[in-house]
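Researcher: Quick test of sequence recovery. Tokens follow.
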């Protein structure tokens, strides 16, 4: 039977099914190290890191280096399970750049090209597919290969980047449609955010990529005018691996690095990656780890007071940048609509939703990064891959359903060894389940945070006076939306009253949990 997300969370002490996961290398047994002490690091990379302001490496970066460029020499595929913000990107980018800078094919390019540098391309859907194609693909100029008779050769377009950063969707678009786009000579495959990537079945991207990296030179040939195949002068053929002891496997072997802060242990999911003799690098003893300097807090409150309590909490945070997570796009929308009815809020907020255009989302995120917006309200879409310098606070307006969700949401703060806090709003009956859930992670202590009751009352009174009330509907909350002619008993600021939909003078503008904001009512 298929498992749902979170089911595999299991007990922390559960022994993983896969033998190679049972005795991982503990990343925490490595200490950070100054850049210049890392063995065999190319001096050009030392300079580049200096320009980036990186003086020393984090433990995950040292561990990964030693298993790839160091004595480990990439003989095994590497699986890295390390907390959010621990520096996983550099942990794979650095060894790969160093290995590619010395690769054989590169030497061939070096011989014919005046400038020696690796080029990085992206296929992530942020520009049109046509723009991406022109960035990634090159049509060879006539006369580049004087040893071949140009008359006889039909020039083929080729990939012009050494390193490609791609999303599964755009990668598949290029595989299917872009002439000259080939993965045949791929040497390294990195799957970041592995657990999420394995859930993205988009056009079976993973089996397709693995299959394409297996093929021989059949797609990389030139043809003469009679259709006879000629060997491309820069083609390297993957030789049979007998000489290296990888019977039946290609050579050079496609090396893989997979990474996550919440790496799956599910054998059926991991088997899709066809890992070779994998080595697990894991942070700490437990399966999940919360960043050391992250403080977790819970706030217990009734759902009808949640919006007001959120406002009070945001006031307490004094306009510091903050991400607010809700369970659904609808819930984010309702919350932001409701907040608009409060006057003089001491923070600027905005919604961040998958229903918005990509360009709108990008602008919102840029404004947030630049400090023009203080609070972003959105769903778990904001929980992955977003890094915002100086972000100190994350708020779970709705309780995260799984510990993995908590880790990724909270992991937007307390990154790269900085301090940060994550607040979670809970209803009374949710507290037990939440505590149990957090126990699945290392460093998961969570204290109670309470808000002064008088501040909550004050916040209620600051809603647009005379024209907007927060109304606590007694029953049948969301059904109100669909039965406009019914009567419902409501309490308006403590007074009992009748709210009639349809012909009544009140206009519903928003539902937030059991609260609704109403405008047009007189006090
Ligand atoms: N050695 C270092 N010294 C200083 N800063 C670093 C170093 N390595 C990485 N960083 C910074 O730390 C931050 C987090 O790094 P990164 O995004 O790679 O984390 P991650 O482990 O991939 O997190 P997530 O799982 O949330 O994606 C980035 O801002 C990065 O620039």
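Model:
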């Amino acid at each position: 039977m298929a498992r749902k997300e979170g089911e595999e969370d299991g007990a922390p002490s559960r022994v993983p099914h896969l033998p190679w996961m049972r005795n991982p290398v503990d990343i925490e047994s490595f200490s950070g190290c100054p850049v210049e002490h890392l063995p065999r690091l190319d001096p050009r990379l030392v300079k580049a890191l200096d320009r980036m302001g990186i003086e020393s490496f984090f433990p995950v970066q040292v561990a990964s280096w030693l298993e790839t460029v160091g004595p480990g020499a990439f003989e095994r595929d590497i699986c890295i399970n390390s907390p959010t913000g621990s520096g996983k990107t550099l942990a794979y980018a650095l060894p790969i750049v160093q290995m590619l800078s010395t690769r054989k094919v590169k030497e061939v390019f070096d011989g014919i090209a005046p400038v020696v540098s690796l080029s990085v391309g992206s296929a992530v859907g942020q520009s049109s597919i046509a723009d991406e194609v022109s960035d990634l693909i090159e049509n060879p100029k006539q006369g580049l290969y004087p040893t071949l008779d140009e008359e006889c050769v039909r020039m083929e377009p080729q990939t012009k980047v050494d390193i490609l950063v791609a999303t599964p969707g755009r990668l598949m678009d290029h595989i299917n449609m872009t002439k000259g786009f080939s993965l045949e000579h791929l040497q390294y495959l990195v799957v970041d955010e592995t657990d999420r990537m394995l859930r993205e079945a988009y056009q079976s991207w993973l089996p397709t990529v693995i299959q394409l990296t297996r093929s021989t030179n059949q797609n990389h040939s030139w043809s003469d005018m009679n259709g006879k195949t000629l060997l491309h002068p820069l083609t390297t053929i993957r030789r049979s691996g007998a000489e290296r002891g990888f019977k039946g496997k290609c050579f050079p072997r496609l090396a893989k690095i997979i990474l996550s802060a919440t790496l799956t242990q599910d054998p059926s999911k991991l088997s899709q990656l066809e890992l070779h003799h994998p080595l697990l690098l894991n942070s700490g003893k437990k399966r999940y780890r919360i960043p050391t300097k992250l403080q977790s807090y819970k706030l217990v409150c009734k759902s009808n007071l949640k919006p007001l309590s959120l406002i009070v909490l945001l006031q307490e945070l004094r306009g510091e940048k903050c991400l607010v997570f809700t369970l659904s796009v609808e819930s984010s929308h309702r919350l932001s609509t409701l907040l608009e009815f409060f006057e003089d809020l001491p923070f600027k907020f905005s919604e961040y939703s998958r229903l918005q255009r990509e360009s709108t989302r990008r602008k919102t995120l840029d404004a947030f990064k630049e400090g023009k917006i203080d609070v972003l309200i959105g769903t778990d879409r904001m929980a992955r891959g977003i890094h915002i310098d100086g972000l100190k606070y994350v708020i779970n307006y709705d309780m995260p359903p799984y510990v993995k969700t908590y880790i990724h949401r909270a992991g937007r703060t307390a990154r790269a060894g900085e301090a940060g806090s994550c607040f979670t709003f809970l209803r009374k009956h949710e507290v037990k389940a939440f505590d149990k859930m957090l126990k699945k992670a290392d460093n998961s202590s969570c204290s109670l945070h309470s808000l002064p009751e008088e501040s909550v009352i004050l916040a209620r009174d600051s809603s647009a006076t005379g024209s907007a009330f927060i109304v606590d509907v007694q029953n049948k909350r969301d059904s109100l939306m669909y039965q406009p002619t019914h009567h419902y008993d409501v309490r308006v600021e403590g007074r009992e009253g009748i709210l009639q939909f349809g012909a009544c003078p009140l206009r519903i503008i928003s539902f937030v949990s059991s609260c609704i904001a109403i405008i047009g009512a007189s006090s």
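The CA atoms of residues 263 and 281 lie 11 Å apart.
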